[in-house]
Design a protein that fits this description.
single chain; mainly alpha; globular
């Protein structure tokens, strides 16, 4: 959890703004993606970047990380939306379900979390 907290700070998002349940779910997603029970700092940084981008939006993320990194995360988000089921897509869905996705970002990409009918 500390590695993820450090990665969130480095991405411009204070770890206290991310609920523990979201952090735990993110670590489980990292494990499922093959990063092991204790993901490397680089893997945590990958997850933290997407979480921060979803929570801060384009502008906020760009202020904290620069426009080049903001463009890179925007491209990752768009690729995740195209893929439908990927590590990044699951992180995006996690922020949606937790109610943490920045509203302008959700509106622009028409993001919504819904439960599939049985």
């Amino acid at each position: 959890m500390r590695r993820l907290d450090d990665a969130l700070r480095a991405a411009g998002l204070h770890p206290n703004l991310v609920p523990d349940a979201v952090k735990i779910a993110s670590l489980k997603l990292l494990k499922a993606a093959g990063h092991g029970r204790v993901p490397a700092p680089e893997a945590c940084a990958e997850a933290a970047g997407m979480l921060a981008y979803c929570m801060l939006g384009d502008y906020g993320f760009g202020v904290e990380n620069g426009t080049a990194r903001g463009r890179a995360l925007k491209a990752r988000l768009e690729a995740a939306l195209d893929a439908g089921d990927s590590f990044d897509a699951r992180l995006v869905l996690l922020t949606l379900h937790a109610g943490l996705t920045q509203n302008a970002l959700a509106d622009r990409y028409k993001l919504q979390a819904s439960i599939a009918p049985e």
